[in-house]
Amino acid sequence: MNTIRFGIAGCGMIADWHAQSILHVEGAELVGASSRNPKSRDAFCLKYGIKPFESYEAMLKDPSVDAICICTPSGLHASMAVQAAQAGKHIVVEKPMAITTAECDQMIEACEKYNVLLSVIFQSRYSKPFRQLKNAVDKGWLGRMTYGDVYMKFIRDPAYYTGSTWKGTWNMDGGGALMNQGIHGVDLLLYLMGDVKSVYGHAKTLVHDIETDDTTSAVVEYKSGALGIIQASTSVYPGVPRKIEISGNRGTVVVEEDVITSWDIKDMKVPEDVIVTKNDDFSAADPSAFTIEGHVNQFTDIVNSFRQGKRPFVDQYEGKRSVELVCAVYDSSKKGIRIDFDR
């Protein structure tokens, strides 16, 4: 398979990031799109000069489509991914992978049964700063790991929710600030710190008129013994850039959004290839205020993996981990108890 030909399901804002990324990756081609909204589908397809499919099912049946990008509301991810697997199409699905662990398992089972590959979009994993931080952790430069924290104090105005039929709903969003906005940070903590042993969370709705959380905090214990804090909100003015702090008894590294702002390791100079600088990212207040660089990096890995028939860096098994932790935070908040993980 020399060129991976993509079809996009769903033509909202995030579909543009997928389309632009595909256009920037060698060995990838965008051939068509489908949407339940014919007007947005036609405008999207006209913009990119691609085929408008009358339905998702029609796109799945087309032999010119090798892979599907699922850019629909989160509550539709699982069913659409299973359909794609049954049609023999490889799958790229926006975060979160699904809204329950049971749905994630359905997707995993379908991919295994029909021998297709899947990648979940977590583009920050592909940024150089997080690769450098992961290398520092793995090499033991920070010493005994003690803390892995993420703070995602974002803001969304009321129109963000009132202008949508699904955001902030349990049925289609699967949660609020933590599941939708915060899951990127949750994925990064799992990537950097490893599996979680237990979590205790509080998920509240303090500002917005929505079903789900807009203000959430959780305390985690990692299997390594280290501790951590997870905070996610869409209720904090003016919106603060995501901050990840990874600490050990020999050092601490701080990353704001995808920029290293502090690298302080005992008896060690900052490596020449590590750039420590100020963060100028404003996506804490504007969900569209980020570049496609991360998506291009991930799609490069996706295309290479699909062409070679190997699992992408962020596959279905990795994608499930963040959903599992987010759901455990919600479960803990609802029951008022600590949730322990089996593995």
Notes on the structure:
- The chain has 343 residues and is an alpha/beta fold.
- It folds into 2 domains: 4-123 and 293-314, 3-Layer(aba) Sandwich (Rossmann fold); 127-286 and 322-340, 2-Layer Sandwich (Dihydrodipicolinate Reductase, domain 2).
- It contains 11 helices and 14 strands.
- It has helices at 13-24, 38-48, 56-61, 77-86, 101-114, 128-138, 158-162, 177-181, 183-193, 293-308, 316-335, and strands at residues 4-9, 28-34, 51-52, 67-70, 90-93, 118-120, 145-153, 196-204, 215-222, 227-233, 243-248, 251-256, 259-265, 339-340.
- The strands form 2 sheets. The chain has an 8-stranded mixed beta sheet with strand order 13-12-11-7-10-9-8-14.
- β4, α4 (77-86) and β5 (90-93) form a beta-alpha-beta unit.
- The radius of gyration is 20 Å and the shape is globular.
- The mean pLDDT is 96.
Provide keyphrases for this structure.
Dihydrodipicolinate Reductase, domain 2; Rossmann fold; eight-stranded mixed beta sheet; 11 helices; six-stranded parallel beta sheet; 23% strand; alpha/beta; 343 residues
